[in-house]
Description:
Blueprint: E1 3-8, E2 13-19, H1 26-34, E3 43-46, H2 53-61, E4 65-70, H3 75-90, E5 98-106, E6 109-118, E7 135-145, E8 148-158, H4 164-188, H5 201-216, H6 226-236, H7 238-244
Parallel strand pairs: 3-4
Antiparallel strand pairs: 1-2, 4-8, 5-6, 6-7, 7-8
Helix pairs in contact: 1-2
Amino acid sequence: MHLVSAFAAGAGLVLGQRATAAKSNEKTAIPELLATLALEGCLVTLDAMGTQPSIAQAIRDRGADYILSLKDNQPLLAESVQDFFMAFQAAPDKTPHRFDEAVEKDHGRLEVRRCYAFDQLDCLHAPERWPDLKSFAVIASERTIKGKTTLEHRFYISSLPADATRLNQAVRQHWRVENSLHWCLDVVFGDDQMRARTGNAAHNFAVMRHFALNLIRLDPVKRKGGLKVRRLIAATSDTYRAQLLGLV
């Protein structure tokens, strides 16, 4: 089962989810999920599967801004951003842009993320298809692990102005949330080992895992063993669950 989840980065909570329909994909589930959320004034970040003009319009209709990833899902648009960036690299001083650099070290990994933000929308393929489009960005992610360095370029479009610092931070937050959510569901709750296949069992269990994850993340106490320990305590202690819910 494929499940689309809405995660509030600031609160650290899953706000909602939608399962994809049979013989369908995330393109149909995302608008349904967006319609259930209060998004006014928020920033919505989506993977490439959600990079569709209709979804961008749905986000804007809800009063939110968007940052959408570009890959093979929008090949002509992605190619136009890539061509623009190659020309920019040849003469960076001649092209107006905003720049931001962030460095992160963690467990032997060094990552440098350089964000280049532009507002030259006329250089893109069919920019009029994207509601309230204001900027596009290229993030060069340079990672060094055990002495080996790799470089990856990621492309984005946004309804935000060409603010490289904000775009860089938002994209990083998106990847951190996605990796954290998937890691927690898999490692803490054994999501990938779930074998429920009949009826609505898979969907129901997925909803319950999200509820449980939200609940144990409310614990303000840092416990040795992290979320695995919190899950065990929550499963065995009525008092602990009541404390998390503010009932005692």
